[in-house]
Amino acid sequence: MVKKGSKRHLKTKRVIGYVPLEIADTSSVLCEDTCSHVHGIDMSHYQGDVFWETVSNNTPMAYVYLKATEGGDRIDEKFERNIVMAHVHGLKVGSYHFYRPKTDQRLQLKNFISQCIPEEQDLIPMIDIETTNGLPTEDFCDSLLTFLELVEEAYQQKPLLYTFRNFYNRHLQGKIDGYKLMIAMYTPEEPVLADERDITMWQYTGKGRIMGVNGYVDKSRFMGDHTLRELRFKH
After folding, report:
1. pTM score, two decimals?
2. What distance in Å separates the CA atoms of residue 130 and residue 216, rounded to the nearest whole number?
3. What pLDDT is stored for residue 30 in this prediction?
4. β-bridge partners, 218
5. What CA–CA distance (Å, rounded) separates 58 from 208?
6. Which residues have a Cβ under 8 Å from the Cβ of 115 and sit 6 or more positions away?
């Protein structure tokens, strides 16, 4: 289980295989301006230095998932600053890990829990699943499920799973029932999975724009009647 009581002080350290993309030109579409769903963003070092006060004051985004780690040893260079500043400016925060199927699962868990500290989380952990790293589907799923069980044991709650619609349809149908899903599909239509299972969140663009961020931002929203409350981290 992840040890508690290790939260760092804001005033010291923390100031934070192939994927077939389904992309349409949505650069002029601002979903958050045309619907009543709860919206949020994903952030990593790719966005550079974020002006979090500007983000908070000028967008309707309610939450942010921040990339914490990848594989067995990579830590996102902007995570320390991002998680503190996102909290300071009022967003609900969750952390995510980019899963590498060929890397030892316990090593990946150790890397993730070094950064995803329970006291700093508002939302359940998210696991980013985008590649099989060349493994056959059965071996890939065995690897993934072993890791997901370790994450659940460590945090005493199931993580949210992020993947693309086509990747899910090809590799994950029937394998991850019971987990909440954020599905990425960059088209105007809401995603529907091949097995028609429930989707909690939809990442609807990888080329979003918001004030306070130079460059593109991944934007997502809740589907149907799903709410932010469902992803609350249980402390």
Report:
1. 0.88
2. 19
3. 56
4. 42
5. 14
6. 68, 69, 75, 79, 95
